[in-house]
Structures are given as C-alpha cells and as structure tokens.
Design goal:
Blueprint (H helix, E strand, L loop, with lengths): L3 H7 L5 H8 L6 E3 L5 E3 L14 E7 L9 H14 L4 E5 L4 H5 L7 E2 L2 E4 L1 H5 L5 H21 L6 E6 L4 E2 L9 E3 L10 E3 L2 E2 L4 H8 L3 H10 L1 E5 L4 E3 L6 H7 L7 E5 L4 E4 L14 H10 L2 E5 L4 H16 L5 E6 L1 H6 L13 H19 L5 E6 L6 H14 L2 E5 L1 H4 L5 H13 L14 H13 L3 E4 L1 H12 L7 E4 L19 E10 L4 E6 L18 E2 L6 E2 L3
Parallel strand pairs: 3-16, 3-17, 4-15, 4-16, 8-11, 17-18, 18-19, 20-22, 21-23
Antiparallel strand pairs: 1-2, 2-14, 5-6, 6-14, 7-12, 9-10, 12-13, 14-15, 22-23, 24-25
Helix pairs in contact: 3-16, 6-7, 6-9, 8-9, 13-14
Amino acid sequence: MNTDLKIAQAAVLEPIDKIAHKAGIPEEYLEIYGKEKAKVNIKLMETLADKPDGKLVLVTAINPTKAGEGKSTTTIGLADGLSKVGKNVMACLREPSLGPVFGLKGGATGGGYAQVVPMESINLHFTGDMHAITTANNLIAAILDNSIFQGNPLNIDPTRVTWKRCLDMNDRTLRDITIAQKKKSNGVEREDHFVITVASEVMAILCLSKDLQDFEKRIGKAVVAYTYDDQPVTVNDIQAAGAATVVMKEAINPNLVQTLEHTPAFIHGGPFANIAHGCNSILATKTALKFADYVITEAGFGADLGAEKFLNIKCRKAGLKPKAAVVVATVKALKLHGDIEEKDLKEENLEALAKGVQNLEKHIENLRKFNLPIVVALNVFVTDTEKELAFLENWAKEQGVEFSRTEVWEKGGLGGVDLAEKVVKAVEENDKELQLLYKDEASITEKIETVCREIYGADGVNFADEVKAEIERIERLGFKHLPVCMAKTPASLTDNAKIKGRPTGFNITINDVKLRSGAGFVVAYANKVLTMPGLPKVPSALNIDIDEETETILGIF
C-alpha cells in the first residue's frame, strides 16, 4: 500500500499560477515561491470590498485518538468532492508545526488521496512563516531583556516578565529554564520557559489580523511584563512593534497551494487548539470567500476546542457566518469513548460503539447551540466492519442527523461526493443566523463558566484563588470585554485526558489565566496544560531521512 508521502510524490502538480488563474486570483498579486506554491499579497483585498462572499463550512471532530480522526483529510476530500459536483470551492487549512511532524502525530496536509501538495514542503519550511513568527517573537523578548539590562528605564519587574521565547519544536527541556546565568553582563538572571511557536501570541495575532497595519497595532498592544508598581508594559512601550512587523512583512500574506485534484487551497497560520485558538488566518478565509462559492475550513482537535474557538473568537472578531458544520468521527475513536483499550480498537465491538457514540451526540448538541446544521462524516477505515457502519447509519437516522460514509483517503474527491451533496443541502436549507455562546459584556468568569457548562457539560468551575485575583486585575485593566480562549486536553470533554465518552457530574478546574491583549483574548488553563510538548520515546524524526542520489525526502508519514 502506498504511503501518504509516496502518493504525494507521485502526483503531477499544476503550476501555481495556473491554480491562481483557476481560482480567479489576478497574477499581479501573486508572489511565487518556486513552481508549486505562492503567496497572495493581501493588498488584493482592497480591490474586493464590493464582491459578495461565498458560503463558509466548518469541519470539526469528536474528541480524537492520539493520531487524530482525519479532520484535515476530510476537509480536503470535501473540497475535492464539491469540485466534482460542480461547485467553485477553496479549502483553508492551518500550517503544520514541526513539533508534531518530527514528534508523534505527523503533519497537517491530509492523507491518502485527499492531500494538499507539495506535501513535504508544506510540512517542513514551506514559505518560512513559522520561522518569521519565531523570529518576531524572540526579537521582542531580546529587546525586552535588553531594556531591563540597559538601566531598566521602564521599571520592569524581571520576575513578572510574561513574554516567553518560542521554538517550533517539541523540546521538554525548555519548559523550565534559568536564563542569564553566572555573569551580570548576561542580564538579569531569572527562571523562565519556552513555548512552542504555534502557542505564541505572535501566531495568534497573525491569524486574527486584517492587514499588516492591523498586525502592528495588535502586536504593539501586547503586554510583555509588569512594573514593580503593577503597571502593564507593552511591545509599544519597549519600542519593538515596528521591528517585529518588518519581520512579518511577507508572512502576513496567505499561502496558495493545491490539492492532489488541483483544487485551490490556502494554508496560513497554525495555532494548536488545545493551547491556542486553533484556526487558520482570517486573511486566508476572507480572501477565499471572495473567490469561491464554497470555502471549507477546519479548526483544531475536537469541537469542544477548535470549533468553540472558531465560533466564539474567530467568527466574533471577523464577522464570519458559517452556514454548516461537518463533524468527523471514526469507528475507532467512538469505541475508544466506549472504554475500549487502544490495542483492541480494530476488533468489532458494537456495545462499545453504542456507548461511545454519546461523545458524538454531545458535539452535535453543542454545535446546534450556534444555529449550525450538522453533517456527520464517518471517516471509514479498512478495519471497520459492516455491522459497525450499519449501526452508526441507523443511529444517525434515529437522531435525525445527516450522515455520510466518507472514503476520501482511499478515493479522493470521489469518496467525498456523498458528503459534498449533503453539505450543499444543509447550506442551502439553512436560514438561521449564527448565534454566539456569550456576549462581549459578560464577565471573564461568566464566559469561562458558560463554555465549561454548555460545551463540556460540567456542573461547575473551580477557580484557584490566584486565578480569581488575576481575573479581577485583567478586568481592572479594561479587558473584561475580551473572549476567552480555553486551554484544555483534547482527549476528553473534561480536564482529565483519561475520562472518555460523555461524562457527567464533574467540575472543571481553572488553575491559570493569561491576558493576550494583542491577540484580543484571555487564555484560561484547565488543569495542567503544557505549552511546550515533548517528544515520544520513538519520535517520527528517527525515521526521516533523504535519499543520497535523488535527494528525495524519506519517512514522512
């Protein structure tokens, strides 16, 4: 059987200018990166103000297994399926992080015959966006520490520096470090830590900015530290906004690529949904909506994380109005939520399936609270039995839920035609307005409690005393109106990764909150959430190499 990599490498790609022409993007706004990828200059948007938007569809999922449930694969396959039924369509995805690529989960370019290409390039350095984000972030950190070293004119308390350095790699040794050791000439010694690039505020700001000027305004407002007398210090205060923006001058432009079936796709921005807001850039989505009748986008992890943030943060800030949602599930994941061990997931088990489907039920209920019609996309695997598939089809009929067996991994767009037709029907029949979960004027505490009760199904929320004090301080500084960005395990509806299914009778513990004033949200951490992942015992990196003669990349998925 061909691997994802072999399938991608065997593909014959169209020149990227041809893909741009197919999408309707004028050549003068293309910034070509080789034959197969390009950036689209955002100045294009200034010419499109009067052009109507297409219809936006969100692809999300149930609480996933460690390997994920094929959300990106389904997004790509659905886009290709819509193309096969005659729709003008574009896909919008997030950029992969090198952390998972060299770690465990893998990249974010889909799989099988539902991929965006060139796969190796997208999963590695691509157009350099991740490096620009990392550099801009660490430039701000360097300027901040230099200000403290050079006489500390802003009266910054070194123990209250909130801006962290970042790296686009899983490296657990950087979770807790000491900087500026031994010599005073190195700066002020203090405990510190790194975060992975995709969890940085620069990444969030990139994804939520409407143009380069907006980026500079947002990054300038980001709080980097507090003074000895408890006053916030911003990027503007340390005079670093201009330099950081210059670093991001090219990265701000969305990246244009194609699927294996030559459907145009934007890939831009890549925050993780368990520790950030988990959506691709507003710029990519809004540009796509001007050129396509249907735009298919995805949000990270399950609907309790990615979809909730897509709706309550991205749609709120950008004024986006999705017309339908696709919930991706797999038989394996549903059996996992039925309390089956991972080693036994390939075995037929209807009892576990009946129990685990309650997790899917909860996600459907949640999305309906936003007035979104739902189509369940069952990502079919060869290990699924006919009895298991029939059970889920009957369950969907009983629930009154649109259901599609999706075979895009094996068949590409052809395997997504049924899903595409059901999505079109859902979109065309939807006459409801998007309804957000909470109002801007609600308190930060109320927003956190609303998400925990309504989305996770919790009975209540436990706030540590220091968290209560920090929320009060954030509100005192004038940021009560911001939405909340929940940081939580993706494996469970609760804050405990080991609890599967649809649990009841539990509370969520919030043990930290952080202001992200540049991005425009407050991060609330549910239990212990790592912002710098570690590598597994046998990371994927150990199997990655390059052929000496052909220079073909080997071992990526």
